[in-house]
Amino acid sequence: MLILPYLQSPDSKFKIVAVCNSSVESAARSVKELKLPSDVRTYGNVQDIADDKDIDLVVCATRGDRHYKSILPSLNAGKNVFEAKELLGVAEENNVKLAAVGLQGRFDATVETLKGVLAEGRLGKVLSTAITSQGLIAGQTELESQTYLVDPLHLLDTVQEALGEFSSFQSLLSNRRPVVKTVKSDGSVAKENAKKTTPDHVMIQGSLKSGAVLSAMIRGGAPFKGSPGLEWSIYGEKGEIRITGPSAFIEIVGTNSIQLHDSASDEVVEIALKNGARCWTSGLLTNRVAVTTRQQRFVP
Questions:
Q1: Nearest to 240 by CA among 259, 216, 215, 265
Q2: Which superfamily is assigned to 3-103+279-293 in CATH?
Q3: pTM of the prediction?
Q4: For residue 288, what pLDDT band results from cuts at 50, 70 and 90?
Q5: Average pLDDT for 203-207
Q6: Which GO terms fall under molecular function for this chain's record (predicted)?
């Protein structure tokens, strides 16, 4: 849960008052393992969270395919929610004041840095951008809990925050591995030949409102050995920016480097992240600025 460090930090404007898991016992273990206050209430049913009158905001931290069932009762109860991209219509029907989608990549230090470089005019007018990336999931062997769509939406939202929105686009989605081996979290085989129906290749071509053109290819599986899982270039009148990172999930794993090639001088310089600070969370390198900023902007 990437937002937990902020919720527990001195800067947080929130207080954790309840935890819901698959059972009351599991929720109690989470409270203990996460070192939450002993008075935090524990629930084993999402309806119980919805019925708790003392809860102002419900944060959905389940995996993507369980968001709907996890958060729907709280929306029906008129509660404010975080992580509800599938349910914004339900939020409107129940007059929910705050229903936020957790596209935290737009607050990542990489995006803030890129926006600053572009605003300074160091690249001139942006002419095109190209992205090649692997999403890590949807390969030949998959975790039993992760056999769903290679998600390009977080990455594309990040790109649009830096460069502007689409004016038009075309997309192609393809499931090139309809049968995969699934494994459990301990590495043991769950199923040798599991049927997969969701796409593992996503290709997008389009134009941005600025006039720049975009090409993106995002696929499942691991990158070529020794190569970055993300290569994103922004080509402009005065040069080109190259961003590399471990995978398409910038909002989770961050980026490795941002380089600027100045055409006039033919020099390549490394661009330092504008906001800098990073921390390890849940075994993954994540950007503290992104997590903190999106939460603070959520507070009215």
A1: 259
A2: NAD(P)-binding Rossmann-like Domain (3.40.50.720)
A3: 0.74
A4: very low
A5: 96
A6: nucleotide binding
